[in-house]
Write a structure and sequence with these properties.
By secondary structure, the protein is mainly beta. It has one helix spanning 115-121, and strands spanning 2-11, 14-26, 33-45, 49-61, 79-97, 100-112, 126-136. Strands 1-2-3-4-5-6-7 form a seven-stranded antiparallel β-sheet. The longest helix has 7 residues, at 115-121. The protein starts with a strand and ends in a 5-residue tail after the last strand. The model has no long low-confidence stretch (mean pLDDT 92).
């Protein structure tokens, strides 16, 4: 089950878009219910710049501990805690290739993990990415 609210507002030389989202999983076998929440916002400004932030809060079950292995006989799924993720990023568009909006950017995500996952993922896991984005556009940009 999911529900979301989105907001979009044009601004001078850009746009501001935000989303609030909630999702729920329910086990048919046991009736166990777990939730996930997300809030994110992106600001496109000065025609070629983007900055964004995202916060996620997700209940995790012990199925995550199986690490893509088959469930053993009699496996009972249980909630082991919540994982939070905090992301911030920036991208800048460049005119490098005709008819392609080219962007170079980076983002950093820091995580907060429950005790049950700290042995596998660490106390404060962090992820970073640098990327090149290509998006086609027509004559007008």
């Amino acid at each position: 089950m999911t529900a979301s609210i989105m907001y979009n507002r044009p601004i001078a030389n850009g746009n501001w878009a935000s989303t609030l989202l909630w999702g729920r999983n329910r086990s048919i076998e046991t009736g166990l219910v777990w939730n996930g929440y997300l809030a994110e916002s992106t600001l496109h400004f000065a025609e070629r710049n983007y900055v964004w932030g995202r916060i996620e809060n997700v209940d995790r079950t012990n199925e995550l501990l199986l690490r893509n292995q088959p469930e053993p006989p009699g496996f009972q799924e249980n909630i082991i805690g919540r994982v939070q993720a905090y992301t911030a990023g920036y991208e800048r568009d460049f005119d490098l290739i005709p008819h392609l909006a080219t962007g170079i950017g980076a983002q950093l995500t820091a995580y907060s993990t429950p005790d049950a996952l700290k042995a596998q993922y660490g106390s404060h896991p962090v992820g970073a990415v640098v990327f090149l984005r290509l998006r086609p556009f027509g004559k007008e940009r």
